[in-house]
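lol so apparently i was supposed to do this last week
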Amino acid sequence: MKWNQEFSVGIPEIDEQHKTLADCVTSIEQAVIGRERWLAVHSALQRAVDFARIHFAVEESLMRIHAYPMLGEHIVEHRQFSKNLERLQEKTLTADVSQEMISFIRGWLEIHVPTYDMPYAAHFFSNANGVKQVVAAKLGRPCSDGAPRVSSVLDGVLALQ
Ligand SMILES: [Fe+2]
Ligand SMILES: [Fe+2]
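anyway here it is w/ fe (ii) ion bound
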């Protein structure tokens, strides 16, 4: 699955994570198309499950910090995707994972990023100044200008502890 600029949400760290998720889908596809052994398909799926968990946790934390009003719906979508991936992984124990199932996962990603992720990014940008002030107060120094960088927001969260 090729990531292209059309999928950019405008936050470099999130784009990088989406590229990694797209790479995970490619690895699963290649393992299935190449009729690789069970272990290769299973471990490609495991990597996708693990990375999706990290990515969703990052997005959901950011949406909470930014008081994103559509957080609930977004979490439901993430849980559904994770459940589908886990179901695919269970299938590898008893049957072949079909190309059709992989297309389903790829389709989910292609729809999720523009439909669900781009709107939260737009909300972050419109809400950036308020969040920067809160984070800057916690850090005791101003945040850098430009996009609301994930790292500076995470610094602020860590400073709360
Ligand atoms: Fe998302
Ligand atoms: Fe995402």
